[in-house]
Amino acid sequence: MKKKRENENIDKHLDNIDKKILESERIVRNLLSYSMIKKPQLEKIKIIPSLEQIIEHLHEKYPKHKINIILKYNCQKEDMIIGDPLHLSELLSNILDNAYQAFPEKTGKINLKVDCDYKKGKINFSIKDNGIGIEKKDLKDIFKPFFTKKTKGIGLGLTVCKQIIDLHGGEINIESRQAKGTAVLVTLPWKKVRNS
């Protein structure tokens, strides 16, 4: 439609259609994940390139947002973990998507840190934003199916994240303060794998 349109005034409407399609895709994806999540299909996954791809997708999804994502990591860029690539992509995409939605003014900062703990055999993903935060009374319910305070979405994103983390033998912890931001820590079992 954009290629064949003769009136530029409809561009705004087409952009809105694109946005609604993306929102619908996320809702359908979360519903499918929640209802049919399966045992992980384990593969070797390059950690940092996968994260960079997710970040690039978010910039494309939210072109009007001015969010500064600061990615730091202590592992090698080619280091790999064993996991389900679709599950882990969904997990990190959901958490980062929530962070983006924590900025009603469409501007802010997200600190994303990857800590590869070789000695303990764990990999920690820390995602901190300085957005609107979550009310203290709501923190106990955030992993419950269909719990949401948002006007968009159906409240399955974090439920799906918890399912994925449990299937991978990991843990998730969320701390938040209203008007201060939210910190999400995901810990997964990890051992260094060779690129072969």
Explain what the structure shows:
- This protein is 35% helix and 26% strand.
- By secondary structure, the protein is an alpha+beta fold.
- It has one domain (8-189): Histidine kinase-like ATPase, C-terminal domain (Heat Shock Protein 90), CATH 3.30.565.
- It has a 5-stranded mixed beta sheet, covered by helices on one side.
- The protein is globular and about 60 Å long.
Blueprint of the fold:
Elements: H1 11-36, E1 43-46, H2 47-61, E2 66-73, E3 80-83, H3 85-101, E4 107-117, E5 122-129, H4 157-167, E6 171-177, E7 181-189
Parallel strand pairs: 2-4
Antiparallel strand pairs: 1-3, 4-5, 5-7, 6-7
Give descriptors for this structure:
five-stranded mixed β-sheet; alpha+beta; 196 residues; two-stranded antiparallel sheet; Heat Shock Protein 90; globular
Entry summary:
The chain has a single domain (8-189), classed as Heat Shock Protein 90 (2-Layer Sandwich), CATH 3.30.565. The protein is built from four helices and seven strands, in the order αβαββαββαββ.
